[in-house]
Structure to design on (208 residues):
């Protein structure tokens, strides 16, 4: 299955210009099987997303993009997140205690919100966004190098805030899943691969 694992919806991410309806429509047009909503320090869309997923039959998994003291981390399979900024390691520990899955997003993007070298210091992180739609290719290639060095899951995600960015990069998983629980379980057990939108379909890649 192909899934965009990092999207911002305008209700709970004030810097986003896209609605859930637009996300699902465009994701379907591009042939995606599911999407994730990872709003900035918010999981407020959970109820509406569950209702909309039921109505449309399109899986929507709500996680969070949590801004830790060392940078942004996306996470799934947690009931809640800290309202204050805490150390990345403490947040990662909380995600693991809940059996969740967490990813360093855009670790080397030039906006000072990535974990950067802290990637080597934290323990228990599961994945790295090696292709992030808002980071340049040099930053993405550095992320890929770190991801390989650390033996973490390689994640592709658009980080879309506008419609044109939706599905630019996505993640490939071997099995189709429809629930958040099955999604998290699969992330923990299979090898994920990033994929790139070509204009007419997706190329699943191991290097770029
Ligand atoms: Zn983001």
């Amino acid at each position: 299955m192909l899934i965009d694992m990092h999207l911002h919806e305008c209700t709970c991410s004030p810097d986003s210009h896209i609605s859930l309806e637009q996300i699902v429509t465009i994701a379907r047009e591009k042939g995606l099987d599911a999407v994730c909503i990872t709003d900035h320090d918010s999981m407020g869309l959970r109820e509406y997303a569950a209702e909309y997923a039921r109505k449309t039959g399109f899986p929507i998994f709500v996680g969070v993009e949590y801004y830790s003291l060392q940078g942004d981390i996306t996470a799934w399979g947690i009931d809640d997140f800290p309202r204050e900024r805490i150390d990345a390691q403490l947040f990662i520990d909380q995600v693991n205690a809940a059996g969740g899955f967490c990813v360093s997003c855009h670790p080397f993007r030039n906006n000072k919100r990535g974990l950067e070298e802290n990637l080597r210091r934290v323990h228990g992180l599961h994945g790295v966004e090696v292709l992030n739609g808002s980071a340049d290719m040099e930053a993405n290639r550095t992320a890929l190098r770190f991801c390989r060095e650390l033996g973490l899951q390689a994640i592709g995600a658009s980080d879309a805030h506008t419609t044109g960015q939706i599905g630019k990069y996505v993640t490939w998983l071997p099995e189709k899943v429809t629930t958040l629980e099955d999604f998290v379980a699969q992330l923990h057990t299979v090898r994920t691969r990033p994929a790139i939108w070509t204009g007419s379909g997706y190329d699943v890649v191991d290097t770029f």
About this structure: The longest strand covers residues 71-76. The chain has a mean pLDDT of 98.
